[in-house]
């Protein structure tokens, strides 16, 4: 029996999302704000993009979850994110780190190290990002995009999970999840998702929402992949290209039937 078969079904998390409508604080990049907020609204959560140093930490104590995305950080935003992450941990709230393009510059590596030290509940990245964080060289990525497939990063995900204590998600053609000892994958999605900017960032926001309603972080991360991957497949089936895929993705997240989700999902 696979690990996924022993966990609750993704429908349970989707129903909890819609019933509870968790508030999710996002300190994210300028590119992703729109898609991330709309993804959360479509699925039934409440997004709030709150990053000012005067309020980020205070807000993190009342939100159901926090997400921190390093896509377009400057030093002021990093300080806000660090304070918010520490406040979230102190208040017992889960938080997600998305280490966008961490292999690209020293500034990004430093930012990621500072945030990793604040004990994220989940780290979600593409293969290059996860390999870089795990200390592997040679796959630093092409800016925000991965230069290798997700299968190449499965061991790195396990190693990073052991090192950091976080559940680690590495996305790509197959999406992999590890907490260091437990492992699962999700096979739903569509290659055209790589042609929409911030598709990974929006998944990170959705992962935060799932963490707010599902106490097992590995199950929460896997169910976010399931919800997003099934919606992406349905959206791609009706899309003429990336523009309609983006629009359809929000529609399918909104329309997704919980029982259909369990039938369509391919977990292992
Ligand atoms: N080759 C692929 N085939 C199918 N889906 C993919 C592929 N690459 C990425 N995805 C999907 O695109 C979304 C974003 O993942 P990814 O591109 O890895 O992250 P990022 O946008 O942060 O680089 C995820 O839902 C993932 O499953
Ligand atoms: C294009 C770009 N540049 C800085 S952040 C960003 C968005 C990256 O989104 P994703 O990591 O989901 O591909
Ligand atoms: Mg990304």
Account of the protein in words:
The chain has one domain (3-170, 178-264): UDP-N-acetylmuramoyl-L-alanine:D-glutamate ligase. Helix content is 50%, strand content 13%. It has twelve helices and eight strands. α2 runs antiparallel to α12. It is globular and about 45 Å long. The chain starts with a helix and ends with a helix.
* Residue windows where pLDDT falls under 50 for at least 5 positions: none
CATH topology call: UDP-N-acetylmuramoyl-L-alanine:D-glutamate ligase
Taken in chain order, the helices and strands follow as HHEHEHEHEHEHHEEEHHHH
What structural class do you assign from the helix and strand content? alpha/beta
Number of helices: 12
Unique bound compounds:
adenosine-5'-diphosphate, 4-methyl-5-hydroxyethylthiazole phosphate, magnesium ion
Distance between the termini: 9 Å
| Largest β-sheet summary | 8 strands, mixed
CATH class: Alpha Beta
Provide the CATH superfamily.
Answer: Ribokinase
Number of domains: 1
Radius of gyration: 16 Å
**CATH architectural label:** 3-Layer(aba) Sandwich
The percent range for strand residues is: 5-15%
Shape: globular
Q: How would you state the average pLDDT, rounded?
A: 97
Helix content: 40-55%
Order the strands across the largest sheet as they lie in space. Answer: 2-1-3-4-5-6-7-8
